[in-house]
Amino acid sequence: MDVALERLPRAVAKVSVTIDPADVSQAMDRAFKTVVGRYNIPGFRRGKAPRKIFERYVGRGVLLQEAAQQLVDRHYREALQAAAVEPVGEPRINIVALDEDKPFQFDIEVESKPVIEIGSLDDLLNEPLVVPEPTDEDLQKEFESVAISQAQLVPVEDEPAAMGDRVVLNLKGYLEEGEEADQTEPFVEDETYAVEIGSGMAVEGLETQLIGLKPNEPATLHLTYPENHPDVALKGKPVRFEVTITELKRPDVPPIDEELAKTLGYDNEQEFRDTVANRLRDRLQQQAKNDRLASILGKLKERVSFELPSALVEQAIHNQMHELDNMLRRMGADIEEYIESRQITLEDLHEEMRPQAEERVREELLLEAVARQQNITVGDEDVIENIRPMAELYRQPVEEIVEMFRSRGDFEALRESLLIQKASDYVSSTVIEG
């Protein structure tokens, strides 16, 4: 088998394959044995007619087509491997020359991962990884954050609402501009509208105006919905809210002391402080690695240009859609409600996601190139070790879960994910001296 490779536009690889005439002759024999039983030949039991008689009645073209299909199936992966092509889309097979006793020629055109030459990384990896040491103020905020997480909400009756309070509102909203402004019916009415002041979860401008209001005292609030609000009927519109705080609770934050430490399972306050401080240092280190990775990938993008396979971009968009759908379902909604609220189509949402998907694919391809250059690999045992916790969780033999992964194609997908993670760790952590 001879193989020739041509790189076409749009990340398409054209692999031209030539099969020796001897292989074609053997394929014709196999093809005859495969198809002879499908036809009734006069004077012979089904499947017993000699090949010459078969060709006279049925035609030689049937055997050539079957032989061609068998040869393509047999040599397809071998040809791609010989040409060092990693397919990512559905192939198109073109038969170029097909005749017995002559070379069989066919072309494979398929979207594939581009060949990326990133060059030396020394100039990008010679900068030290700078991890900031947390200041006393940083540590204190971290301790306070843990204490706040243990706070109990207590009712407040005679004091005004403040930042961090949780309130329940009797709320009615009215448009103050357009045809709807003359109507007395509110566009929203809720007797149990819950807000955490300072969380940023309510419409912009509402939470800050609640500060200073007391329970059971009616108030009128004015604000304008932002231009990027998902509800097209409200974006950019001035509105008036008639509100009354019907319930106000305030977090009762415990002091940072021995009692808090023991409540959280520590032996003493010092152990609590040391653990929280180390956790903050780990987070700062991870952030420094993430920043370094982003910086180096940004420079690689400027240095290396290549076409993105559309199949990989579409898969990345599909993954983003899946992530969004999972997030919406956790909030009690779904994709259909989301696009309806934004007055867009599913196709519009796909196109919104495309730039981010393209960046994700570009970075992953660059990281795979780094892995190849640095001989970073992921063996079967590495993949199995990542599957093992799932097997333990579901109390299933790890061999069964591994087989399930292999049958669905998830085993190799996980291998690729682990490879990208290894390459990311290498780029974010490796410092070349000098």
Describe the structure.
- It contains 14 helices and 9 strands.
- Helices cover 48% and strands 17% of the residues.
- The chain has helices at residues 21-35, 51-57, 60-82, 122-125, 136-149, 206-210, 258-263, 269-303, 310-330, 335-341, 346-373, 380-393, 398-408, 410-429, and strands at 2-8, 12-19, 92-97, 104-111, 152-155, 166-175, 188-196, 219-224, 238-252.
- By secondary structure, the protein is α+β, with helices and mostly antiparallel strands.
- The strands form 2 sheets. Strands 5, 6, 7, 8 and 9 form a 5-stranded antiparallel sheet that branches. A 4-stranded antiparallel sheet has the order 1-2-4-3.
- Helix 1 packs across helix 3, helix 8 (269-303) packs across helix 14 (410-429) and helix 11 (346-373) packs across helix 14.
Task: Report a brief summary of the structure.
The protein is α+β, with helices and mostly antiparallel strands and 434 residues long. It has 14 helices and 9 strands.
Helix content: 40-55%
CATH architecture of one domain: 2-Layer Sandwich
State the CATH topology of one domain. Alpha-Beta Plaits
What oligomeric assembly is this protein in? single chain
Attribute tags:
single chain; 434 residues; alpha+beta; Alpha-Beta Plaits; Chitinase A, domain 3; 5-stranded antiparallel β-sheet; 4-stranded antiparallel β-sheet; 9 strands; elongated; peptidyl-prolyl cis-trans isomerase activity; isomerase; chaperone; cytoplasm; cell cycle
